[in-house]
Amino acid sequence: MLLLYILSLWALVSCSPIDSIDTTHRLLFSGNEGPHPNQLVPPSIDPIAVPIQQAPVFRQSCPVLNGISNDNSAPPPVNAALAPASTQTDARVLMFPLANYQGTPKVFENVSTNKCYNTEASGFGVEIAFELAAQHSSLQKDFSTHFLLFGREESKLSQTAQRIESLPEISVSIAPNFELSSVQASTELLISQTKRVANEIGIQNIRSVLVIFNSGTTGDLSKRIGDYDSVSEISSYYSINLVSFTANVSQLVKYLHSNQFQSVTLVQISSLLAVKPYPYWSLYASAKAARDMLFGVIAQEYPSIKTLNYAPGPLDNTMQASVVSTIGDPIQRRIYSDMKNEGNLVNMNSSARKLVHVLSNNSFVSGSHIDFYDE
């Protein structure tokens, strides 16, 4: 049997109209986080299996995730329930869509389990990918895994793929030119590549599927909702962050459900702002809330598909620096600055590890919203 992970793991900091975003503001990361309620005063997966020797090796283009932890300690053990019987020789397929800009991520991976740590890759999506690879490498010696990575820039996808491929029994495919700005093109690329990999491996050999969506933009944080003069700016924002996301999810659910894939889990990187409003986050927060609700509805419509909305916390990354320099609310600017200076922002490794731990335990309620700070 084989495990399939599909991750949509790219995000973009946008502090100006979408059409004029500079490429220097494009990066891989999870959702933008508002201050957690407890931090207004800062507080002091199961792989798809196929015989390793039979697992195809794909080499296209896609970014990969990197390891997780606030420290250098080893990742927590994966729930043994996620591991196949020791007598099985399986290949895992992980789909991790990782786009730098306007792209829904996808990743299939055939990988055996060994520890993998990435110290150079950047972005929350990359952190998640490497943490997943590390967990699988340390647990399942009889599995091979294949990552299918989606992103905008082939060079960055290739760099990530090379690091992941350095692990034993891991192969990677990359799918560049993944643009969320085009609803139809991004959806077609997601589905066509998913079908290609699944067909080459054999749907009957795929034991479970994990899909992670980490794509999005912050929007212009200098504006309140009444400050937008351009209707097209609002339309463009929702097209990238909600319409493309919904279309991607819709067609992926249709494909996975109609082909009766086993043990399907969908994860979207959410935000505290999906459940708690803050000024100057009107477009971002409303889009995140809608995405959360969509996953809640999917959990009701498709009991066989498990969904999770994961809020990673206020991450210590390039996005936070951009938020501090552009947000129109002086109170939030001060809070974020203080959190950075006092070392209270969340380390990306720690948050990615928390997500993998939640997925490994697999005890969360389908359709629920889980925050990094939740017990």
Account of the protein in words:
With 375 residues, the protein is of the alpha/beta class. The protein has one domain: 3-Layer(aba) Sandwich (Rossmann fold), CATH 3.40.50.720. The protein is 35% helix and 16% strand. It contains eight helices and eleven strands. The strands form three sheets. Strands 1-8-9-10-11 form a five-stranded parallel sheet, with helices on one face. Helix 5 (282-301) links the parallel strand 9 and strand 10. Helix 3 runs parallel beside helix 4, helix 4 (231-258) packs parallel to helix 5 (282-301) and helix 6 (318-326) runs antiparallel to helix 7 (330-341). The model is unreliable at 11-122 (pLDDT under 50).
Under CATH, the homologous superfamily reads: NAD(P)-binding Rossmann-like Domain
The CATH topology comes to Rossmann fold
What's the helix-strand series? EEEEEHEHEHEHEHEHHHE
Mean of the pLDDT scores?
72
Shape: globular
* Percent of sequence in beta strands: 15-25%
Strand segment count: 11
CATH architecture field? 3-Layer(aba) Sandwich
- Integer-rounded radius of gyration: 19 Å
| Uncertain runs | 11-122
Reported for the largest beta sheet, the result is: 5 strands, parallel
Structural class: alpha/beta
Give the quaternary arrangement of the chains. single chain
User: How many structural domains?
Assistant: 1
